[in-house]
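Hi F.,

I've been meaning to write this up properly since the lab meeting, where we talked about keeping a consistent format for the predictions we share between groups. The idea is simple: the sequence comes first, exactly as it goes in, then the structure tokens exactly as they come out, then a line or two of notes. No screenshots and no reformatting. I'm using this chain as the first example so we have something concrete to point to.
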Amino acid sequence: MASTDTIFQRSKLLNKYYEKTGKAAAGIGACPVFTEFRAGYGLVDTSDPDNPVLLTIPANMAEIPNEFYRGLVEAEYSNGVTQCKCEIPIGAVDKPRKFNMIGIFDQDSDLVAVCTTFPDWVTPTEVDRSYPALTFPLEEEDEDASSGTAEDSSGE
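Output, unedited:
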């Protein structure tokens, strides 16, 4: 049985996302737009099949290992979270495929985010819908700041 601190899902914005966003802020290129997903299998230790362990997602990933499907992503943003709907339709695979990874690619076909889960199977006779969520945490406004009592750090 899995312990209470078992990690069942990992999601990560990659360095490529931050690099492109930083450049766009300086007027160089555009911010990444999530347009495509690629499904694959990897970054999981299954040496103990009853207790798989999700491995750390490398910040510089550029490809999805064991990729077997590509599709369009539907992304929605709400309250600091972008949720991506990734659907693998009936008949998209010709035989069952082991699956645990979704890569999110931008308009330039650059891998900008990765989500992993425990291994599952995609079959030819069923639709598979995954909903990776990427968090963009928003800071709560400090009560002192909203009442005008916070110190100005600009030095003026």
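Notes:
Residues 9-73+96-121 form one domain.
DSSP finds two helices and eleven strands in the chain.

If this format works for you, I'll send the rest the same way.

G.
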